[in-house]
Amino acid sequence: MLEVIATLPRGPVFLAGETLCCNVTFTNSSADNQSAEEVLAWSSVQIICQCTVSESRVQLPRTTALSTEEASTTGCETSFVPNKGERGLTVLCTKPKILFCDLKLAPGATRTYQYEEVIPTDAPPSFRGQAVKYSYKVIVGTQRLEKTTKMVRVPFRVLVLFGLNDISVYNETEEIAPSNPFLNNSRKENSVLDVGLQEVISLYFIFIFNTDSYNIANGRGKVARFLLFKQAYKLGEDIVGMFDFDVGTVPCVQYSVTLQSEEKISEECRRKPGQGTAITSYVKHQEMCLNTLRTHMNIPIPLTATPGFMTDIVCQRWRLHFEFVTSLDKVDGPESVPADCEEHQWQGANTLNVETMVWDLPIKVFPTNPIHASSVTLMKTSALINMANG
């Protein structure tokens, strides 16, 4: 029995532009020394990205996708079709890399090969929306002599930081690099991960020092003032804001804040001209606030979410969705408690005449360190197949 195992040693999350490393191990698990050795004709590895869409909402232009036949011939000159059996359309197919030809394994023998491939910086991110889905896999194809091709599929996730160009511009040249006679001056080039994290931090700091104050009002007056300490966040961060109801003239009974993403299909890909935007809600903070002077909210951004991005098919943006329930009548609060009174009870009104107002505040969500995102993912880092003799 021959086993083929493909493993992603660093984890299943990568930043576009990084080098993906996959270890492929071939093992002849026959314990009987009298068994014949296993012979494999070849093995090849490559990366594909499949795009799956809701046919009731999206119609893809012919130029944005590769059919099964095209994917097998466009940069994929092997005898197996990597997207065979996959749903959707292939939007990315890297050139195949051959691991070996004519491999012989004696009973109990094991051979491990390392596959490395750079994920294109212009690749779409991994995304599971209501109308569009982008999914990545490492495909390992292996064939015995005169047998059918067997494939191992290892799914992984890609985070994209748009604007990340050639990393050579981030590496110091010898002319401008500082020199120290007491140190080894060998130049160390930045990795794509280092550059990507630097770029996230640079973009991040553009927004975090801008504390914004918003006056929330309706036709009857001012409801509250909302303070948001920054407008840009990374995956896994908490969105912290403060409400000041003391400045309001309209009594607010309850408020809620929901973290939402907007999935908007491009006009040329919409199935219907008047098609709306799909909204996905993630985390909700809700609080009763009648007679409250000040309070705050704290909403975590899931590490499993997809940062804002745009492709030829879909655009995703992030926002905070606010709902305020205000009273149409004046609500008297509790009276001041006398100093000599130990207990004081206030009974609110049984019914209130209320109305609801909504407000959407756009925010920016950037990728985080892919190693951090790997710590919470449910994706497996390895896959295995058994190649029977039949």
TrEMBL record:
InterPro entries: Arrestin-like_C (IPR014752), Rgp1 (IPR014848). It comes from the Eukaryota. This is Arrestin C-terminal-like domain-containing protein. It comes from Elysia chlorotica (Eastern emerald elysia).
